[in-house]
Amino acid sequence: MKRDFSQLSGVNFDLIVIGGGIVGSGIARDAALRGLHTLLVEKDGFAHGTTSSSTRLIHGGLRYLRTMQFGLVRQDLREREIILKIAPHLVKRLQFVIPALRSEPFYRFSLPFGLYLYDFLAKGRSIPRWRRLSRQKTLELEPNLAGIDDLVASFLYSDCQAEYMERLCLENLLSAAENGACILNHAAAKNLLMKDGTVHGIKVTDNFTGENYVANGRMVVNAGGHWANLLWETSNVKSKDRLRRTKGIHLLTKKVSNNALVLFAKSDGRLFFIIPLWDYSLIGTTDTDYTDDLDSIYASTSDVEYLVTELRHYFPQFGPDDIYYTMAGLRSLVASGDKTASDTSRAHKLVDHEQQTGLKGLITVLGGKITAYRAIGEEVLDLVCKKFGVQAPCTTADTPLPGAPAVSSHEIESAAKQNDLPVETVTYVASLYGSKVSSVLEHANADKRLGQPIAASSPDILAQIKYAVEEEEAVTLSDFLLCCTNIGLGPSQGLDTIETVGGEMGPLLGWSKAEQQGQIESYRAIAALGQRFRT
Ligand SMILES: Cc1cc2nc3c(=O)[nH]c(=O)nc-3n(C[C@H](O)[C@H](O)[C@H](O)COP(=O)(O)OP(=O)(O)OC[C@H]3O[C@@H](n4cnc5c(N)ncnc54)[C@H](O)[C@@H]3O)c2cc1C
Fold first, then answer.
1. Atom in ligand 1 nearest the alpha carbon of residue 369
2. Cα(first)–Cα(last) distance of the chain, in Å?
3. Degrees (nearest 5) of the Cα angle 22, 296, 501?
4. What is the mean pLDDT of residues 498-521?
5. pLDDT over 70 (residue 191)
6. Tens digits of per-residue pLDDT, 329-374?
7. Looking at residue 339, what is its pLDDT?
8. How many CB atoms lie within 10 A of CB 454?
9. Whose CA is nearest to atom 19 of ligand 1?
10. pLDDT band at 171 (very low <50, low <70, confident <90, very high)
11. How many CB atoms lie within 10 A of CB 86?
12. pLDDT tens, position by position, 442-464
């Protein structure tokens, strides 16, 4: 991938995708694999929007059975299998424990029905069925639940997790680029270009230089997530659909459980998760309507208090000092007049503006879970191909992502020997890049210094920085820390690495000293949002 705006001149793209979150990335990949000449523009870093603030589950959503969204759950359970197949290096099975309490007879008796149904809807799954565990077996799995006096048993079921969700997004873009797509980050679509009731391109701004470019295309897909309707406003596009934005937060904390736990909030009955994430726990989420600043979202003191209070019903010893930092993101839901945020459907909607208002050349995607991203891409491209009158079948369900398959332990050992690196280092690097690990290690082989860790606290090595700049369009500190790697998601938020990473990226990208310092300050400001609840 090359961030080169000259690729825009003199070209009429088949498809222009706005938004480099998981949905836009999946659309761009599908389009490129079908042979369409595709452009994707992302106004910030890839995956920087809601994609990076999710719970990181690839799941059908047990919770949505309560609101009877059976079709959605069935589709997402099917997608779970597909994503496991095309991205085995990034997605893994995760075991969930739901404690059954004497004081909650409703959940104790209704959950087995829900779990039967969940298994039934996951036809053809590769994941084990649910089962019930005695109190004793539950405590063997989760000793920290011993403090719950009325624990009588638990239910065990499985779903999937993508710890490196940002890389799942990035690999879709890498695959699109491998198939001829032009992918530009820090490139904002400012306006739709229209003539005679037809959208024929976008005006796009390079966020670093402020320079404006014209990108022409036969069709534009707006996959701008919770910003999608801003483009409608700037381009005077009318639609009867409305977005409902709701905020969801997570806490990264000291390790609370061995498995994922599903707990119910005592105050409102909402379900929330404790998810193991590396050596820590990710706890969330909340679901509250949001009308504030779209570019600066953070967990407030009251958001955090809600989760901590609910958590303490199960883990009384848990306190605010156990929190490293918080994350916050916005769901963009299709408004449908439902009473509560939690009751609003998580299903996506394609707005075909030609059908709605006669405006040709524009499709907008509203809503949609990460789990559904590939299916959304397929649906969008089926519609685009129909409009173009071309027959090009979707291949994304059978085409592995660039880092697939996962690397075997035998391959890891021989790569470690060959590159003179510890097996643990290669194991970790392979968990991020899958089969592309050898391309990263080549840098460490060519220059032994690059085999050194970036910081004492992180298993990442300097070679990853060079690889990210040369192959993955990392052009800011946060591109590297929050998308190409997850260094920024560790307890220190990567703040102990910024001088080193800045010092390595600077010469590769030709930054002046002032620009390097500017990068460091911008990253500090992003990290500070995660601590804002403390004040
Ligand atoms: C708290 C929380 C937990 C969640 N957990 C899960 C989960 O576990 N599993 C799951 O399946 N789903 C989950 N979801 C839902 C999921 O995260 C989102 O539905 C998904 O990430 C949406 O992806 P997206 O690409 O549409 O949006 P985003 O990731 O927000 O991407 C949109 C992108 O468009 C870019 N953009 C916008 N306007 C422009 C423009 N004019 N020019 C250029 N670029 C532009 C933005 O910068 C952004 O990067 C969760 C959501 C929340 C809030």
1. 19
2. 41
3. 70
4. 98
5. yes
6. 999 998 887 667 777 878 899 999 999 999 999 999 999 899 999 9
7. 65
8. 23
9. 369
10. very high
11. 22
12. 999 999 999 999 998 789 999 99
Residues with CB under 6 A from ligand 1: 18-24, 41-44, 48-51, 53-57, 188-189, 223-227, 231, 248, 285, 329-331, 368-371
Closest CA relative to residue 217, chosen from 361, 350, 390 = 361
Question: Which of 148, 440, 490, 78 has its CA nearest to residue 324?
Answer: 490
Q: What is the 3-state secondary structure (H, E, C) of 153-198?
A: EEEEEEEEECCCHHHHHHHHHHHHHHCCCEEECCEEEEEEEEECCE
How does DSSP classify residue 490?
S
Within 8 A by CB and 6+ apart from 362, the residues are: 192, 199, 219, 220, 221, 222, 237, 353, 354
Residue nearest to atom 31 of ligand 1 (CA): 21
Tell me which of 5, 51, 371 to substitute to probe ligand 1's pocket, judged by most ligand atoms within 8 Å of the beta carbon.
Answer: 51
Pocket test for ligand 1, best of 92, 369, 473, 482 (most atoms within 8 A of CB): 369
Query: Ligand 1 centre and the CA of 51: distance in Å?
Result: 4
Kindly state the average pLDDT of the residues 499-503.
97
Whole-number Å distance, alpha carbon 229 to ligand 1 midpoint, is 14
Distance 22 CA to ligand 1 centre (A): 7
CA 424 – ligand 1 centroid, Å = 33
Q: Give me ligand 1 centre to Cα 250, in Å.
A: 15
Lowest-confidence range among 48-62, 100-114, 127-141, 241-255?
100-114
Nearest protein CA to atom 3 of ligand 1, as residue: 54
For position 300, what pLDDT does the model report?
97
Could you tell me whether strands 92-101 and 12-18 are parallel, antiparallel, or unpaired per DSSP bridges? unpaired
* Beta pairing partners, 350: 365
Closest approach atom of ligand 1 to CA 48: 49
The rounded Cα 334 to chain-centroid distance in angstroms is 19
Look at ligand 1, atom 27, and give the residue with the nearest C-alpha.
Answer: 225
Give pLDDT, residue 106: 80
Residue 115 clears pLDDT 90, i.e. is over it: yes
Which of 350, 42, 348, 352 has its CA nearest to residue 199?
A: 352
Determine the Cα–Cα distance for residues 506 and 492; give it in Å rounded to an integer. 22
Q: What is the largest CA-CA distance in the chain?
A: 71
Say if residue 394's pLDDT is above 70.
Answer: yes
Write down the pLDDT at residue 109: 86
